[in-house]
């Protein structure tokens, strides 16, 4: 379950930023997660609860935005959102290996007091 590692790194990074800003309590952490990043949201939420215990992020909220997969077809020159796990252009049915979005895993913001 790599969600524990993801949650741990997000919280550690948030704590680092919050301390540099002079904060003593984190109230919210926002993440941006690509649909193809392999993150199970429920597992991430469970892991987040565990890794925030006993630190300045305890009791904080976790919010996340799921970014859909978007591919580019070199044949047609279009961007598209694939259906399922086969990244096939809906216009020409050629597979696309040019994934433009959907692999993100970003710490977007931290709210602290």
Query: Outline, from the CA principal axes?
Result: elongated
Structural class category: alpha+beta
Approximately what portion of the residues adopt beta-strand conformation? 25-35%
Question: Over all CA atoms, what is the radius of gyration?
Answer: 18 Å
Question: Briefly, what CATH class?
Answer: Alpha Beta
List the strand order in the largest sheet: 2-1-6
Whole-number mean pLDDT: 96
In percent, how helical is the residue content? 25-40%
| Poorly predicted segments | none
CATH topology: the name is hypothetical protein PF0899 fold
CATH architecture: 2-Layer Sandwich
Number of separate helices: 2
Order of helices and strands: HEHEEEEE
In quaternary terms, these chains amount to single chain
The strand count comes to 6
Largest sheet: 3 strands, mixed
Whole-number count of domains: 1
N-C termini distance: 31 Å
Keywords:
about 110 residues, alpha+beta, hypothetical protein PF0899 fold, three-stranded antiparallel β-sheet, 2 helices, 6 strands, elongated
Question: Could you describe the 3D structure shown?
Answer:
- The chain is of the alpha+beta class.
- The protein has two helices and six strands.
- The strands form two sheets. The protein has a three-stranded mixed sheet, covered by helices on one side. A three-stranded antiparallel sheet has the order 4-3-5, with no helix packed on it.
- Helix 1 (3-20) packs across helix 2 (41-51).
- It is elongated and about 55 Å long.
- It starts with a helix and ends with a strand.
- The mean pLDDT is 96.
